[in-house]
User: Fold these one by one.
Assistant:
Number 1:
Amino acid sequence: MPRKPRVESVGFHHIINRGVARGNIFLKDKDFEKFLEILQEATQRYDFTVHSFCLMSNHYHLLIKTKDENLSLIARQINSKYAQYFNREYKRVGPLWQGRFKNYFVYDDKYLYSLIKYIERNPIKANITKNIGEYRWAMSSKIFEFSMLNYELIKNIDFTKELNEDDIKKLEELQKAKYTKVDSEIKRVRQKSLQDYFSDKNISKNKRNELIRLAVKDGYKQSEVAEFLKLSRTVISKVVNFSE
């Protein structure tokens, strides 16, 4: 089966990689520090910024924003240079990573903010710490001053509000969603057209509201649904927010 082509488009990307056989890739503080140094070197070469990161013992999460279509080059440099360091440091041979890195293109603001919460809460989920900011090797610790780090998004997120099961489910759905490139813009591939969603003109208000929420969940903007149904954006917003 051919590999799924990566989305290299300019914008936010969530990158994940794990150690082979889920083995540890960070054994001591020096390893974490070396990874961040390699990441900094990569930003200087490929001109991208880091908006969230979390380095766990056997995997890492990065949220980066690219300025060129060079995601694969970025990840290749980070992973290969760190693997070389790790194998040399611990006198080992063979692959360090379990396979190709995973990446998700972040095409939605709500997805973006939920994702940062998800990344930064990894140590809490693993019962390593209890509060955001306590884990040294996450960006929310705010102890690093690398030029690659852009703290603006982190500053604007209310971490006191936890991600609930519904938030996690929506995040997983967004990560599994298919997207395509239209006129140089990445757009989510919708399951159905708005015409298909609202083909029945005699449905009840409750059913219509349910379909509105499904359409928005499927990737349609509230403004698009409002225009199609000839309703105000305020009405659509109230319908969508009522379910959250």
Number 2:
Amino acid sequence: MIDQISVVIITMNRRELIEKSVPILLEDPSTGELIVVVDGAKDGTMNVLERWAERDERVKPIWQENAGEGAARQRGVTAAQYDIVVILDDDVIPTVDLVSRHALFHTANDVDLVLGYMPTSVPTPRRRGQVATILYAQDYEKTCREYEAHPEAIYRHFWSGNFSIRREPALSLGLRGGIRLGYHEDLYFGLRCHEAGLHMAFDRGAMGHHTHSRNLRKLSGEVRRSGESRAILLRWFPDIAQFADPLFALDGSQRRVLMTLSGKWMREVVTPTLMAASWCAGVLHLWRLEIDFARVMRQVELVYAFRKRMRFPAGTRPS
């Protein structure tokens, strides 16, 4: 029976969210320690955590100069003292029994890693400008259904904001890989877990609520980083083409249309036009059109960035 486990949160300039999560996590009897790695934040997060640590010895803040998500997770897991470590993003607000549910699943099942559930909080009533969050929420729920139907999908669609892992294989594998990515660090970690033979499972009971807020311009930037990172990962993991290549599953006509729309000059006209059309549809409360225009814009940007990056010469796969 696993009674207590370590919790690691990585944070940067999200003090308000940390102030919501910490008391919830400390109420859970399975929280043996709460390690918060402050990755270069300058919003007073460290001061808040130090005051918390004076009241509860389980709170263990760690400061580091900004080094990125992977390095911060590595620092937190290295400092952990328990055999199981829950790793949370700072924008995931835990439910009161999230930690206990992770502990229970590890006790009842022979697994190395448990991927928890983190539904996206969508504001209600619906208003214009929320389309990026709605798309994100829809994609995430679709992915969770795939986890349940095909457990092997976990490694190839790894969503890392809420998971627990045995400390020993985590340190052996390393939370920080050898490829520099602007996006999809979580997918990269899932692929490395699969290569290492880790047994992974998904549990909806280990739940936290994901706070998500993006406008279309930020969504566009994220999608471009996604396309570039997919192309980089595809060079090192050629067997992931069916889910990394945005053109892979399309038929001939769909492929030709997207390749045309995502061409260098065409895309410069198409993307802002689709963004404007989505915004106007939102103003008119034409919700379906708002989503459809944003979805096409996202696909154009994804294909554009992916194809652009695939033209770069390949390097050498890191060890």
